[in-house]
Amino acid sequence: MQLLAVEYARTVLGWSDAHTTEINPQTSRPVIHVMPEQEKKLLSQDYGGTMRLGVYKAVLRKGSLAASAYGVRAISERHRHRYEVNNTFRKDLEAAGLIFSGTSPDGQLAEIAELPVSIHPFFLGTQFHPEFLARPLSPHPLFTSFIRASLARSK
Q1: How far apart are alpha carbons 122 and 88 in whole angstroms?
Q2: What is the pLDDT of residues 137-148, one digit of tens each?
Q3: In contact, 61 and 99? CB cutoff 8 Å
Q4: The domain that contains 42 carries what CATH number?
Q5: Into how many domains does the chain fold?
Q6: 43 lies in which domain range?
Q7: Cα 131 from Cα 25, distance rounded (Å)
């Protein structure tokens, strides 16, 4: 989802300077940045406890591709990252058509970004790691939804 947001900002909004501060700390448009409460620790190279690690809850937007895939509106998924969508740019991305269909329960952290199915058959990225919960006989609902969209498109 992080690279999805950067590329969307570059391509759709025309922000050639959009980037993640993980790769370019000096970018003038840090679409992805380190979580503010962790920034101070990283500057002092105190990497302990600077990662969003473990299972976190998310709320899915009604009618979204994500909600359709899961079949529920509240999920829990595993995370392992330091960087998040910068809320300073979230409204611009949404105004340009990107949907943040999954957020933390308080709405502050973007968890899933997608485009409407009317625009693209399956354009979805996650902040979390769905592969952590996927098993050969029990695939993750997002993977199953992607395969269904692919099969439907191939017919």
Answers
A1: 26
A2: 899 999 999 999
A3: yes
A4: 3.40.50.880
A5: 1
A6: 34-83+90-154
A7: 29
Is 5 a member of any domain? Answer: no
Burial 72-105, CB ≥16 within 10 A → b, else e: eeebebebebbbbbbeebbebbeeeebbbbbbee
| Amino acid, res. 63 | G
Rounded to whole angstroms, the Cα distance separating 5 from 85 reads 8
Q: Is residue 134 part of a domain?
A: yes
pLDDT for position 133: 85
What pTM value is reported for the model?
0.91
Instruction: Give, to the nearest 10 degrees, the angle between helix 87-95 and helix 2-11.
Output: 60
Pairing verdict, β 83-85 and 99-103:
unpaired
Flag whether 29 is in a domain: no
Check: CB of residue 19 under 8 Å from CB of residue 6: yes
